[in-house]
Specification:
The structure holds two protein chains of two kinds. Chain A is α+β, with helices and mostly antiparallel strands. Chain A is built from 13 helices and 19 strands. Chain A has helices at 3-10, 41-54, 104-112, 130-136, 143-146, 181-185, 219-230, 262-276, 290-299, 317-326, 350-362, 385-398, 405-408; strands at 15-17, 35-37, 57-61, 75-79, 86-90, 95-99, 116-117, 153-160, 165-169, 193-201, 203-204, 209-216, 238-245, 251-259, 282-284, 306-311, 332-335, 340-344, 366-372. In chain A, the strands form four sheets. An eight-stranded antiparallel beta sheet of chain A has the order 15-12-14-13-17-18-16-19, with helices on both faces. Chain A has a five-stranded antiparallel beta sheet with strand order 5-6-10-8-9. Chain B is an alpha+beta fold. Chain B folds into four domains: 2-85, Uridine Diphospho-n-acetylenolpyruvylglucosamine Reductase, domain 2 (2-Layer Sandwich); 92-210, Uridine Diphospho-n-acetylenolpyruvylglucosamine Reductase, domain 3, CATH 3.30.465.10; 214-324, Alpha-Beta Plaits; 330-404, Alpha-Beta Plaits. Chain B has helices at residues 2-9, 18-21, 45-57, 110-117, 136-142, 149-152, 187-191, 225-237, 250-257, 284-298, 309-320, 322-326, 345-358, 385-404, 423-426, 429-442; strands spanning 14-15, 38-40, 62-65, 82-85, 92-96, 101-104, 122-123, 159-165, 171-175, 200-207, 209-210, 214-222, 244-249, 271-279, 302-305, 332-335, 338-339, 362-368, 373-374, 376-380. In chain B, the strands form five sheets. Chain B has a seven-stranded antiparallel beta sheet, sandwiched between helices. In chain B, helix 1 runs antiparallel to helix 3, helix 8 crosses helix 10 and helix 13 packs antiparallel against helix 14. The relative contact order of chain B is 0.12. Classes of the chains: A alpha+beta, B alpha+beta. Chains A and B meet through strand 9, helix 6, strand 11, helix 8 and strand 16 of A and strand 9, helix 7, strand 11, helix 8 and helix 16 of B.
């Protein structure tokens, strides 16, 4: 009996396809035995139990766009794309629940149709799945004004490695009924469990979005102005420096987004210009070209063959940006409020990244390899021994049989 | 044992005399009282570590305690256990204006942090109603909220890093601003709200916000709770983002106005709604006007708008002093805490009124209407055994009601000992077992705050 036959004996209706089919994700590292697409939480549970019995690992994927490389071993890919659709949306409660395989675009469109939105803008967000975004705790530049994605995830249904179904959190904003296991799942990158449903907090769309732009020859030239914006007595929705940008003919830009009533953003703009000591070069809204710039900022470098992310305190950003420029790394996007830098490019070198990691760690920060296609990948800043030990214990209670090993490899 | 503890923290900082131990027999939930074996008051992370290591070695249970303002019995002692209090760990260790961060010891009082950061134009956003007394360590343990969490979010949004002492005395560091790129599970987020069962936070790094330039506060007076509820729904549906939306009901208004905290609310009102906007000065009047229109459309008979800080405090007084005022009309008060989807508030409030009538109990409601966080306050006399029994039954019904409409049993007070029995309402046995295992991850010995959270 083949593996697929074995699975069919347990889950006769589950869709199965070959990982080499043209529309399959690109598998960096080992290739799965097959891709299974369960359509319910219960089937996800049965699939995980079956995989454990067969000695197979399970790698949750949705769009597959952000699947990490898997080291050698026999595993199946658990495609969540059929766990799709909006399950519950009550606009007056500002909450929405959707299957983990639902594209963010579906959720975004539903919310915007009711004058609401989910204020996070990670790279390529609209094409990605809810489960993937939550699993990665994907973030964007709106962190300054709205906080991290983890603050907006109110609840989730998950399946542990041994097939237990857990409802974590709920669908209300304030909930402290028991230890917050949900927080370990958000950003857990599939190491702990398989997400099958996610409940998000929604926000009213701001009455106006104003985009302020200051251009310069390089990110380094603009970073001090960005830091000045970040210490002004008003809090913008986002503060980003990026470059070089195609939409600005290769120049860099400081882009600040202000949300609020027109009189509010007028006053906030004036406050920021006073604080920075100069006016912005361009003042735009999404109707006159800002959307193209925001789109490029959101995605810059993220889809490259090699991509790294650095975090430091904002006060340390100038040094890190200079270091990156000195070793020839770029293009880059800097969220100067969050203290994060993303650099992507097909030709990122191992040695320059190593230099940058050392500089980040010396400044009290960290560097993570987001993607590195090719041999000889540099390493990310490791977690401490004790947090690694606690994380392993957490993995052991979620996945006692170690079925989800491909996500941890 | 006491001498060995004194050797660590100093002679005067270990309490064993029965007269002094009585002060620690309960927290803000006075229905439960247990005199602890001893109280230890360390001053540093290292002292906490040594104390916990010693108690762990001796197999003695530990109950962490902040200011003791908790309302779920989370700091209730165990008869053979030792309380480790953070009262002496009350230093603000650093304020980083550039990066908008502060690092504090756990015994720092919530409001004191905002006072200390005000000269820098910054403040700490979570503002539990007890913020003039409660500590940041307690806020971390309970993931505390507060009126302004409607706009700004709860404690977990603001804590960026923790130094924690585990049950065996090991000192560990979780998170830290600037280290987000480390690929690890969110142990900071998991620790927050763990009610003293995972460890004792001894240093807390928090994010600060720029102090809002302006504030507008409205008080809407309504003949019925139903009208006030509709006003809340309309305000939130209109796209406005108030900093706070709070409701007090008729019973509360009567209690407040009969007390020394009288705030000038009309005693024949069915409900009063406190609405606050903050942020950039320009635009606040516009927001307040729109909220006022929502209130009028919902049937408000009167709207008051503060024109000075003094007037603002006056409008808030009836809300902030509600719990104190209720002490005047009953010897005991059970402050319940549950959250429901905002759209279910009217029906839930109506049913809570019926439950009060069915059990012949006086229930006064004060709550964070904007996020559906209810605080039905049950007034009673615990010397009356029959009444106490009815209080417990009514509480059970209220919790079941809130869960049945998609809510939960606690929004900000925590489970403690008070809500343990209700946990099966929101978690099945598989989930409860998972919570037990989560506790094991941090404290395999189970000696930290035993008997809390889990049924």
């Amino acid at each position: 009996m083949t593996l697929v036959d074995g699975l069919r004996s347990v889950l006769p209706d589950v869709a199965v396809r070959d990982p080499s089919e043209p529309d399959s994700p690109a598998w960096h590292g080992a290739t799965p035995e097959f891709i299974a697409s369960p359509s319910s939480t219960e089937d996800v549970s049965r699939l995980l139990v079956w995989a454990a019995q067969e000695g197979l690992g399970v790698l949750p994927v949705a769009s597959g766009s952000h699947a990490d490389p898997v080291s050698n071993g026999r595993f199946v890919a658990l495609d969540t794309s059929l766990l799709s659709g909006i399950e519950e949306y009550e606009p007056a409660d500002l909450t929405i629940t959707a299957g983990a395989g639902t594209r963010f675009a579906t959720v975004d469109d539903a919310l915007r149709g009711n004058g609401q939105w989910a204020p996070f803008d990670p790279p390529a967000a609209r094409g990605r799945s809810m489960g993937g975004l939550v699993s990665e705790a994907a973030h964007g530049s709106l962190w300054a004004g709205y906080g991290a994605l983890k603050n907006h995830v109110l609840g989730a249904t998950v399946v542990t490695g041994d097939g237990r179904v857990l409802r974590l959190g709920g669908k209300v904003v304030k909930n402290v009924a028991g230890y917050d296991l949900l927080r370990s799942v958000v950003g857990g990158r599939g190491r702990l469990c398989v997400l099958t449903s996610v409940c998000l907090r929604a926000f009213p769309l701001p009455p106006q979005e104003r985009v302020l732009l200051m251009s310069g020859t390089s990110v380094a030239e603009l970073i001090e102005s960005a830091l000045a914006v970040g210490t002004a007595p008003v809090l913008p929705a986002s503060i980003v420096v990026a470059g070089p940008l195609d939409v600005l003919d290769g120049r860099a830009a400081l882009v600040v987004r202000l949300h609020g009533a027109e009189s509010t953003v007028d006053a906030d703009q004036a406050t920021l210009e006073t604080h920075v000591g100069r006016p912005f070069d361009r003042v735009m809204d999404v109707r006159d070209g800002a959307a193209r710039i925001l789109s490029q900022l959101q995605d810059l470098g993220a889809a490259e063959e090699r991509c790294i992310e650095i975090s430091v305190l904002p006060s340390q950003l100038s040094g890190l940006v200079s270091c990156a420029a000195d070793v020839g790394l770029g293009p880059m996007v800097v969220d100067s409020y969050a203290g994060r830098i993303r650099i992507g490019g097909a030709d990122l070198g191992v040695d320059p990244v190593g230099t940058l990691r050392a500089a980040a760690e010396k400044a009290g920060g960290a560097l993570r390899i987001v993607r590195w296609n090719g041999a000889d990948s540099p390493t990310s800043t490791p977690q401490s021994a004790v947090t690694a030990m606690l994380s392993e214990r957490l993995e052991s209670i979620f996945d006692p049989g170690g079925v989800l090993w491909p996500a941890r490899s | 044992m006491a001498d060995r503890l004194r050797a660590i923290v100093g002679h005067n900082h270990v309490i064993t005399h029965p007269d002094r131990l009585v002060a620690y027999e309960s927290d803000g939930l006075t229905a439960y009282r247990v005199v602890p074996r001893a109280v230890v008051l360390p001053e540093t992370t290292e002292q906490v570590s040594s104390v916990l290591a010693l108690l762990h070695e001796e197999g003695i249970e530990v109950v962490p305690r902040g200011a003791g303002t908790g309302l779920s019995g989370g700091a209730l002692p165990t008869p053979d256990g030792v309380i480790v209090g953070t009262a002496r760990m009350n230093r603000i260790l650093s304020i980083d204006q550039q990066d908008r961060l502060a690092t504090v010891q756990p015994g720092v009082i919530n409001a004191r942090l905002t006072e200390a950061t005000a000269p820098y134009g910054l403040y700490y956003a979570p503002d539990p109603s007890s913020q003039s007394a409660c500590t940041l360590g307690g806020n971390v343990a309970e993931n505390s909220g507060g009126p302004h969490c409607l706009k700004y979010g709860v404690t977990s949004r603001y804590v960026t890093g923790l130094t924690v002492v585990l049950a065996d005395g090991e000192i560990v560091r979780f998170g830290g601003a600037g280290t987000e790129a480390v690929a690890s599970l969110d142990l900071v987020g998991l620790f927050i709200g763990s009610e003293g069962c995972f460890g004792i936070a001894t240093e807390i790094e928090v994010r600060l916000l720029p102090a809002p330039e302006g504030v507008r506060t409205l008080l809407g007076i309504f003949d019925t709770m139903q009208e006030a509820g509709h006003a809340v729904t309309d305000i939130m549906a209109s796209g406005l983002m108030p900093a706070a939306v709070e409701i007090v009901d008729h019973a509360t208004i009567v209690a407040v106005e009969a007390s020394v905290f009288a705030a000038g609310y009309p005693i024949d009102a069915g409900a009063a709604l406190v609405i606050e906007f903050d942020g950039t000065e320009a635009g606040l009047d516009e927001d307040a006007d729109r909220a006022e229109q929502c209130c009028v459309a919902a049937g408000a008979r009167e709207i008051r708008r503060a024109t000075s800080e003094e007037e603002r405090l006056g409008l808030w007084k009836g809300r902030k002093k509600a719990f104190g005022a209720m002490g005047r009309i009953a010897p005991d008060l059970l402050v319940q805490d549950a959250t429901v989807p905002r759209t279910r508030l009217p029906e839930v409030l109506a049913r809570i009124t019926e439950i009060g009538e069915e059990y012949d109990l006086k229930i006064a409601n004060v709550f964070h209407a904007g996020d559906g966080n209810l605080h039905p306050n049950i007034l009673f006399d615990r010397q009356n055994a029959d009444e106490l029994d009815r209080v417990e039954k009514a509480s059970q019904e209220i919790m079941s009601l809130c869960v049945s409409v998609g809510g939960t049993i606690t929004g900000e007070h925590g489970v403690g000992v008070d809500k343990r029995g209700y946990m099966p309402l929101v978690h099945n046995e598989v989930e409860l077992e998972m919570l037990r295992r989560a506790r094991w991850v941090f404290d395999p010995s189970g000696s930290l705050n035993p008997g809390k959270v889990l049924p």
